[in-house]
Design a protein that fits this description.
Helices cover 38% and strands 15% of the residues. The protein contains 9 helices and 10 strands.
Length: 308
């Protein structure tokens, strides 16, 4: 099966400043890991620039204008305490949108089965009218809505295993029954959303993890709560918000996953995608802030896609 890997130098232009955890070094560490010979079969893609029309699938024009007007000619501008833009942020953010939409096109037209988009800035905290949590535009939500509207899909699933709840993705699809959003995340933790009672139109599945939970806890909760819901939903297309900050070494959380847990969940999602959606999976990078753990976790995730 063909697995695509999207990356681009423009993603490194988004400068978050010294000491910010969401840095360009994250993508460099992943690129180094995926340069190994075992990844020689990856098809390496240079993504096109995204378009405002694609961003408007999820975000209001007011939000787009606010973000773009905030991009400075030099230095940094803070949209909130965590979310910063620099002169290169527009290129990076638009290129990220172009990457995920191009990946949808390749998968839906049968030119590939899987894709991993190593993009930044990340996206799953960006709400339709608000940037937050390092995120400007919600890449995975845009990709899901692009797939739904352009390819007339009836059932799209987004699985988010980032350690932080994807409040932006949930907000985008809270009343959209054709999109199932399933998230595992540490609670209580940023951004303070993601309670099991938040169910939308019956299409939201929130599965909190506790500080100290390990791979056994993670796997048990997926087996009992998320995987059965995915099988019941029968997604025609699956997207992954692939955050690797639930790793035991990550500095921004307190869940204790290891690389093998990421391979396990990837293989489980692949099995569901094969049963219901011709194996189609698009994975989009979210968090992960310990460079060594991020690189190793992303590599084992991509290897599972490549080996499928």
């Amino acid at each position: 099966m063909t697995t695509l890997y999207y990356s681009h130098p423009d993603f490194l232009l988004h400068d978050t400043g010294a000491e910010h955890p969401e840095s360009a070094e994250r993508l460099k560490s992943i690129a180094d890991a995926l340069a190994a010979s075992e990844f020689s079969a990856l098809v390496r893609m240079s993504p096109p620039m995204g378009r405002e029309q694609q961003i408007r699938l999820i975000h209001s024009q007011r939000h787009i204008d606010t973000v773009l007007k905030a991009v400075p000619e030099q230095g940094h501008h803070y949209l909130d305490a965590d979310t910063v833009v620099s002169p290169g942020s527009r290129k990076a953010a638009f290129r990220a949108v172009g990457a995920v939409c191009d990946a949808v096109d390749h998968i839906m037209t049968g030119r590939a089965e899987h894709a991993f988009c190593a993009v930044r800035p990340p996206g799953h905290h960006a709400e339709p009218d608000r940037a937050m949590g390092f995120c400007l535009f919600n890449n995975v939500a845009i990709a899901a809505e692009y797939a739904r509207t352009h390819y007339r899909l009836e059932r799209i699933a987004i699985v988010d295993f980032d350690v932080h709840h994807g409040n932006g993705t949930q907000a985008a699809f809270y009343r959209q029954p054709r999109v199932l959003y399933a998230s595992s995340h540490e609670m209580p933790h940023y951004p303070g959303t993601g309670y099991p009672s938040e169910t939308g139109a019956g299409n939201i599945v929130n599965v909190p993890l506790s500080a100290g939970d390990d791979g056994a806890d993670f796997r048990r909760k997926y087996q009992s709560l998320i995987l059965p819901e995915l099988d019941r939903f029968k997604p025609e297309f699956m997207l992954i918000s692939a955050g690797f900050d639930a790793h035991r070494d990550d500095p921004l959380a307190d869940v204790n996953l290891v690389e093998a847990d990421y391979r396990w969940v990837t293989e489980e999602l692949l099995a569901i995608a094969r049963r219901h959606g011709q194996g189609r999976i698009l994975s989009v990078l979210e968090g992960g802030y310990h460079l060594k753990a991020l690189a190793a976790s992303a590599a084992i995730h991509v290897k599972a896609l490549l080996d499928a």
